């Protein structure tokens, strides 16, 4: 072990020695203690100076790579600290400095001790994938978030999760190597994740220890799970094709190619790919995915009769694959490429040089950053000539497009021509108007030259007058070495550009610019719909067949239990209704009384009619302590009085000593007279019992009888209301405090004759005395 540790230190020393020749601070020209802002500023200046597209120096490519390498190292605090402390300058995202425990982990042979038993020649033939191709492509969580995830917006990423002592991973290693040979030339990246060392990242991919190796495809930040049981090159390529979809490169023929090429008004160039193959090559799909923001792709299969017009019009060779890039001009392609086998790198170079229209529209902040980049240096500043116009104003756009095509004045490589919609970018245009007091309020068809010095500051200059169309030309002569000034507005623009690219050129106005609106962004409902689709697809990808069966089983069990519970509850309710109906029928004295009770009372409080058939049950056979409360009424007043009586006695429904009922006065009048005769006192000055024959039944309506059949006594209650003059007299007496006089006036009729109904039977029943009291007198009841 000591020898191994010394070997590790020696390798680490050699590694640091080899890496020490690279000095990122010297490459960027900053001090060791420079801040991140100073490093970023130095990087921008050097990157613009040594960019291969802007520098003619033969070593520009190498210098540019070194500048990017130094910047990537110093912008990462951990890697910068590692370089400052140990001089390690490795800049790969999956780099780990050599450690004794890591080295021992990766090279440890658990069967070394067996050699002492079986001899030194014994070897266990098992090689971990960690020591080969898988280890070279391994990424960490930090490398994934920093590099792989952002890169998936342009390049599809195949990611394989593996682990130690995984027999499936060992078998998949040769296939993974062959797949890399197929994917690398077509622009699809590949990487691996160690499930044991990066468990969080492995869980993010949905990998499980019992299902390794696990493959996913990362496209535009979305993870697609590979579900095929067989891990082979053919199946993986088929899986990638399915995720690209058929809408990425639609088919084009003689019937629709003109509509396809004339669709450049969506602010994207058109790329037409031709060939004889029925199935699109994977490199074409990867290319279309990478440039989908800048170009719309179409594929024309060269078949006689279907693409004859396309072949004749553009002189397409039938024996080779071809790629045509079209801008606004449909008749002449901006770039053409024909080869038996179109390399991915060559197609990428062609599209990089022609990925914008001659006059693109500024529809988002990203497009503005790409077409009008930031440049704080006045010497190398890049200007943008911007036309404020709507999409419908095609004449002004076409005029500026022609101007941009033939412009060959000063700063040709450092000036761009664009147009912006006044409605779509209203805040941006309004800021330019308000910053220039001399500017008119209507900026339609006006030109403005802008220079973006930083993210928020913009210097600009409005060109006088509106931009004129070609038919408004004033002369046709060429102005020496600049361009043909067809009219005065074009002449003003040419003079302004010549002045700005000179030493004393200056942009007089400056304003603060906010971030532009993304005109192509989806609406709120569309974003919600897309999120739901992504969520459903993610759930579909992450759920395996076994999990789905388990979930379906649980849901089916819950539904079955709820259905059984509902049926049982329904059957119980039916049984309760049946029992309730039987009880109500059994307790009902007669069918007539049941019908009347059901219509006037609830099941909790039953009131029965007092008559000959129910007399024994309601009066004579009452148990000790029980009483029957009876209301006197007639057929005319039953519907009005009985509900009121029911509502009054409702609070006493739970009292088991009370029974409630009612009686028709016409049917029980003789019994009522006999009852009153027992209650009247006999003697001189008292009513004659014969007067009971003259009782008016109408005056007895509303009387309440409380009958105690066991003790043989009863109570009577009858309410009277003050009416007419007697009510007025009562009110006056009340005001004067003469309550005794009122008491004597109540005694005008002796012994309560009016209360008991002793009055002329011919008198109106509505007339009543002023007595308002309850009279109760106990007496024996004759059975």
UniProtKB/TrEMBL annotation:
Stretch list, region Disordered: 740-783
What does the record say about its membrane topology?
Single-pass type IV membrane protein
Q: Which residues cross the membrane?
A: 548-573
Localization per record:
Endoplasmic reticulum membrane
Task: List all Basic residues biased stretches.
Answer: 740-749
One GO BP on record is: autophagy
Work out whether the entry's keyword set contains Signal.
Answer: yes
Q: Which GO terms describe its cellular component?
A: endoplasmic reticulum membrane
Which InterPro entries does its entry note? Answer: DnaJ_C16_autophagy_reg, DnaJ_domain, DnaJ_domain_CS, J_dom_sf, Thioredoxin-like_sf, Thioredoxin_domain
Question: Which key words tag this protein in UniProt?
Answer: Autophagy, Membrane, Signal, Transmembrane, Transmembrane helix
Query: CDD domains under this entry?
Result: DnaJ
- What span is annotated as the signal peptide, if there is one? 1-20
In what residue span(s) does the J domain sit?
A: 23-87
- Enumerate the Pfam families for this protein: DnaJ, Thioredoxin
What does this protein do, in the record's words?
A: Plays an important role in regulating the size of autophagosomes during the formation process.
- Protein's UniProt name: DnaJ homolog subfamily C member 16
């Amino acid at each position: 072990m000591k020898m191994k540790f010394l070997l590790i230190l020696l390798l680490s020393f050699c590694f640091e020695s080899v890496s020490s020749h690279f000095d990122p601070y010297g490459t960027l020209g900053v001090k060791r203690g420079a801040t991140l802002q100073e490093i970023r500023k130095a990087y921008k200046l050097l990157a613009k100076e040594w960019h291969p597209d802007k520098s003619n120096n033969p070593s520009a490519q190498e210098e540019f790579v070194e500048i990017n390498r130094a910047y990537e190292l110093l912008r990462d605090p951990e890697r910068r600290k590692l370089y400052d402390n140990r001089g390690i300058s490795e800049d790969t995202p999956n780099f780990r400095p050599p450690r004794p425990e890591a080295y021992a982990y990766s090279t440890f042979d658990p069967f070394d001790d067996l050699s002492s038993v079986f001899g030194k020649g014994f070897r266990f033939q098992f090689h971990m994938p960690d020591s080969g191709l898988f280890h070279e492509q391994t990424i960490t969580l930090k490398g994934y978030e920093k590099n792989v995830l952002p890169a998936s917006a342009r390049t599809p990423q195949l990611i394989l999760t593996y682990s130690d002592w995984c027999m499936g991973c060992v078998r998949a290693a040769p296939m993974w190597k062959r797949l890399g040979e197929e994917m690398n030339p077509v622009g699809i990246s590949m990487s691996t994740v160690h499930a044991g060392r990066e468990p969080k990242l492995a869980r993010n991919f949905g990998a499980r220890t019992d299902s390794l190796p696990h493959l996913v495809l990362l496209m535009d930040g979305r993870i697609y799970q590979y579900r095929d049981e067989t891990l082979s090159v053919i199946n993986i390529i088929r899986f990638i094709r399915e995720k690209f979809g058929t809408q990425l490169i639609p088919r084009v023929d003689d019937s629709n190619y003109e509509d396809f090429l004339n669709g450049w008004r969506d602010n994207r160039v058109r790329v037409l790919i031709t060939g004889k193959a029925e199935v699109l090559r994977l490199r074409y799909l990867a290319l279309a995915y990478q440039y989908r923001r800048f170009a719309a792709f179409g594929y024309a299969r060269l078949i006689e009769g279907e693409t004859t017009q396309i072949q004749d019009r553009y002189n397409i060779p039938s024996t080779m694959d071809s790629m045509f890039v079209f801008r606004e001009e449909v008749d002449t392609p901006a770039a053409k490429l024909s080869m038996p086998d179109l390399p991915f790198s060559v197609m990428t170079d062609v599209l990089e040089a022609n990925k914008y229209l001659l006059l693109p529209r500024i529809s988002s902040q990203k497009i503005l950053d790409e077409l009008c980049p930031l440049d704080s240096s006045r010497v190398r500043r890049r200007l943008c000539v911007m036309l404020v116009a709507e999409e419908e104003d095609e004449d002004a756009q076409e005029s500026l497009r022609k101007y941009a095509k033939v412009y060959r004045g000063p700063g040709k490589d450092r000036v761009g021509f664009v147009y912006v919609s006044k409605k779509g970018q209203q805040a941006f245009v309004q800021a330019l108007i308000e910053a220039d007091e001399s500017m008119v309020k209507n900026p339609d068809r006006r030109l403005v030259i802008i220079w973006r010095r930083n993210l928020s500051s913009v210097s600009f200059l409005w060109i006088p007058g509106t931009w004129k169309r070609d038919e408004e030309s004033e002369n046709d002569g060429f102005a020496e070495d600049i361009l043909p000034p067809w009219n005065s507005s074009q002449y003003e623009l040419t003079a302004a550009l010549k002045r700005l690219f000179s030493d004393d050129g200056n942009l007089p106005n400056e304003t603060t610019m906010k971030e532009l609106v993304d005109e192509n962004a989806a609406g709120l409902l569309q974003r919600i719909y897309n999120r739901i689709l992504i969520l459903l697809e993610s759930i579909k990808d992450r759920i395996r067949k076994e999990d789905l069966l388990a979930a379906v089983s649980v849901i089916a069990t819950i539904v079955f239990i709820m259905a059984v519970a509902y049926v049982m509850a329904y059957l119980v309710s039916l049984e309760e209704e049946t029992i309730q109906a039987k009880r109500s029928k059994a307790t009902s004295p007669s069918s007539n009384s049941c019908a009347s009770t059901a219509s006037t009372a609830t099941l909790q409080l039953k009131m029965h009619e007092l008559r000959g058939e129910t007399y024994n049950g309601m009066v004579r056979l009452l148990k000790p302590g029980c009483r029957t409360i009876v209301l006197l009424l007639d057929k005319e007043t039953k519907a009005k009085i009985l509900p009121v009586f029911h509502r009054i006695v409702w609070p006493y429904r739970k009292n088991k000593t009370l029974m409630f009922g009612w009686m028709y006065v016409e049917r029980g009048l003789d019994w009522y007279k006999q009852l009153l005769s027992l209650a009247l006192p006999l003697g001189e000055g008292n009513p004659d019992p014969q007067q009971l024959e003259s009782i008016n039944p109408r005056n007895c309506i509303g009387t309440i009888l409380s009958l105690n059949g066991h003790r043989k006594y009863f109570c009577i209650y009858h309410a009277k209301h003050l009416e007419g003059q007697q009510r007025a007299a009562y009110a006056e007496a009340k005001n004067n405090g003469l309550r005794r006089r009122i008491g004597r006036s109540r005694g005008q009729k002796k012994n309560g004759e009016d209360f008991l109904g002793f009055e002329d039977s011919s008198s109106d029943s509505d007339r009543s005395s002023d007595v308002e009291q309850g009279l109760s007198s106990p007496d024996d009841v004759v059975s």
